[in-house]
What we know:
Distance between the termini of chain A: 42 Å
Oligomer: homodimer
Largest interface: A-B, 66 and 66 residues
Number of helices of chain A: 8
Strand order of the largest sheet of chain A: 6-7-5-4-8-9-10
Largest sheet of chain A: 7 strands, mixed
Mean pLDDT of chain A: 90
Low-confidence stretches of chain A: none
Radius of gyration of chain A: 20 Å
Amino acid sequence: MNKPKVSNAIIRRLPRYRRYLGYLQTKGIKKVSSNELSELIGYTASQIRQDFNTFGEFGQQGYGYSVDYLYKEINKILGLDREYKTVVVGCGHLGQAITNYTYYYKIGFNIMGLFDVNQDIIGKVINDVEIMDSSELKDFVTREGVDIGIICVNRENAQAVADTLVEGGVKGIWNFAPIDIDIPKDVALESVHLSDSLHALSFMIKSLNEKEQ
Amino acid sequence: MNKPKVSNAIIRRLPRYRRYLGYLQTKGIKKVSSNELSELIGYTASQIRQDFNTFGEFGQQGYGYSVDYLYKEINKILGLDREYKTVVVGCGHLGQAITNYTYYYKIGFNIMGLFDVNQDIIGKVINDVEIMDSSELKDFVTREGVDIGIICVNRENAQAVADTLVEGGVKGIWNFAPIDIDIPKDVALESVHLSDSLHALSFMIKSLNEKEQ
């Protein structure tokens, strides 16, 4: 696992801050205090102030934070002030769902290549991008300077796809296969463990049941 | 947002403990210390001991934890020692991917109903379950005593689907629509924010880039 300079926990909190600040923007709210953010997000106000201090001075004591400024700064911190060249490997239902998701929300991840091994869907076009044969993956990644590979293949093929992406020169991998994959330390890896989320839901249901009894 | 007795942070850690313990089981490992778990998962050893103490005594000082026992106990704590009757609403690519995921891994969530508004796919069968018309959702949920509704519809329709599920009597909602939905406090809600994960990846890529410079 890669270890950037800041803790794993703050990496998890920053996207949440961004999401809630975006929500405040849609409501037309311009200023927010750490106490108000605490109320909204569920972290303590002191945690929030400490997190923001890690990256610089975003607010003035007693005046709160500017929502627009904070949102923009967090975007920069997260590296979202640029475009990422992205490919999706595995174009089954999950791959197509993820492709639609990133395409529809235009969130800075430009999907420029889709890959699969299934001859029946190679050549099919999704959101203006044609599905190519996975045998072309490495060359494409190298030639186009692809930044991110999204792995939507099954558990059995995930490591081989990761290896190919790394050989091609990607900077990061977003992995949806339910398996821990090994990659070099200089490539970022984010695995989505849907089961963790489902098990958290199970725990909440159990807790609510116990409360009622 | 619902507030069970234990903190939001530990709800996030427990499924991870479970996942890594399952990994140790597949390796045939029987005993593990909090230090070894710390190495594997990335939380501090004292955090791990504190978490386990919240729920009871799982190990003996200096002897480590029994992997099998701990896995079983965490399953119980998470409420995974039972089956949940589950429905999926929205059977586009995402809904079908999630249906396949839960079906394939047989993880205690029994998908007994699929629903959509699209007349072209109503009647289609996925993993032995027929897609029904969403107009039948509420009656089905009530009649069958469905526990969990999985929302895979678009942002615009997510709240209406959540309302119907709640009226039908579900205990929990697993929401994939990129929107905050409102539900009563006695229903558990877990929203999957894929963008948070993608933005964490972006941050890791940026941090690795900065390291290289």
